[in-house]
Design brief:
It contains no helices and eleven strands. It is mostly beta strands. It folds into two domains: 34 residues, no CATH class; 88 residues, no CATH class. This is YmaF family protein.
């Protein structure tokens, strides 16, 4: 019996020759399988006379087990430049009524006519 399955794979950043890749199934037997992701958004710290807004969706991660999510986005263009934001969320923080969220924080890339960076932090959506 054949069951059609589709999905995608993330390349591992691991340099170990015995590394593996993460496989995420997006459909099983023609039915969609929702990916476990979170939205995130916020405003960076105020540095060099301005701040930036940012928003994105985390990379998928397994549900129901301890996990983190990788994230990547660009900030808004302010003061004629933007910054890159990337990192890994903290572990899942369970909520009393079910579900969870993740905390994230970091520092942007260095950009701008007056080279600088911004701090950022927040919580993902549930």
């Amino acid at each position: 019996m054949e069951i059609p399955v589709s999905g995608f794979m993330y390349h591992s950043d691991d340099s170990d020759p015995q590394h593996s890749h993460q496989l995420f199934i997006t459909s099983w037997d023609g039915r969609p399988v929702p990916a476990h992701v979170h939205e995130y958004r916020g405003v960076t710290s105020f540095d060099a006379g301005h701040n930036h807004r940012y928003a994105g969706i985390t990379e998928p991660a397994p549900s129901g087990v301890p996990h983190t999510h990788r994230y990547f986005t660009f900030t808004s263009v302010d003061d004629q430049h933007q910054h890159e934001i990337r990192g890994v969320t903290g572990p899942a923080i369970p909520l009393p009524n079910g579900g969870h969220y993740h905390e994230f924080s970091g520092v942007t890339t260095i950009n701008g006519m007056n080279p600088h960076r911004h701090n950022y932090s927040g919580n993902t959506s549930l």
